[in-house]
Structures are given as structure tokens and as C-alpha cells.
Specification:
Helix content is about 80%, strand content about 0%. It has about 100 residues and is mostly helical. The relative contact order is 0.20.
Length: about 100
């Protein structure tokens, strides 16, 4: 939930400037890894499933950043995109491992 809040805040904060989408989404995912490690007090089990799920989440965050950067015309639309993007990220963060697991052998 904290990650989704940080994403929404970042989207609102970044709406009026030109974003470097891939780099900012990568920095956001690094923050996610740090937050998850600090909250759970352990390092993640880094394997192919972890890389795939983090890659899917990174792609989603980059897509949401692109959406706000490209289509946000005002503060109201930025709030709408931020709320939808944060909600989608929260769902994806909970289910990313389950979604990519059938494709990782």
C-alpha cells in the first residue's frame, strides 16, 4: 500500500514537467525494493520469478508514467491517472508473482 501511495504522489508531483520515463520508473522500482526490504526485514529471494515479476511491475510503472506524461492536461486528469495507476499497481504488486509464474520454468 505504501508503494502505491508513493507512486501516486510521484505521478502528481511529476505531472507538470517532462519526465525521463524509463529512468524514473527504474528509480521507483529501486525504491520499491528498498521499501520492501525494510518493511519485511529481509532481503528478497532473487531468482527468475523475482526478476520476471519486478520486470512486469517496472513495465507497468513506465506505462503509467508515460500515460501521465503524454495525456495529462490538468490537475484533475493527473489525479485521475494517479489514482487509477496506484490502484492498478497495488493489485499488480499483490499478484505479479502469480501472473508470471506459469511462464517461468
Amino acid at each position: 500500500m505504501l508503494e502505491a501511495f508513493v507512486l501516486a504522489f510521484w505521478l502528481i508531483w511529476s505531472s507538470e514537467r517532462d519526465m525521463n520515463i524509463l529512468m524514473e520508473s527504474l528509480v521507483f522500482m529501486l525504491l520499491v525494493m528498498i521499501m520492501r526490504g525494510l518493511i519485511s526485514f529481509q532481503a528478497p529471494e532473487i531468482n527468475n520469478l523475482w526478476f520476471a515479476s519486478m520486470g512486469v511491475q517496472w513495465g507497468y510503472v513506465a506505462f503509467v508514467f508515460w500515460l501521465v506524461n503524454r495525456f495529462s492536461t490538468g490537475f484533475a486528469t493527473t489525479l485521475l491517472y494517479a489514482a487509477a495507476g496506484a490502484g492498478g499497481y497495488y493489485w499488480l504488486a499483490l499478484n505479479a508473482t502469480r501472473l508470471v509464474e506459469p511462464y517461468i520454468v
